[in-house]
What we know:
single chain; about 0% strand; rod-shaped; mainly alpha
Amino acid sequence: KRNAALSERIRAIFEDHHGTYGVRRIYHELVNQGHKVNHKRVQRLMHQMRLCGKRPKEKYHSYIGTVGKIADNIIDRDFSTKAP
């Protein structure tokens, strides 16, 4: 009974925020509304309802130019080999 009512409330919060809220935000929203609920219960119910919040897209990393700095050969290193 309590899970059914809580599931409806979770789905309503999830849809009000266009599917962007995950377990943590929905849990805090429920606590702010006065519900006494554990975050693990919210997680279990969301998993049963197949609800998961949208994850932010990975940041695009482009690189222009050389890859890092190349150290000056101040100690006259010679890495060339004639045989293995």
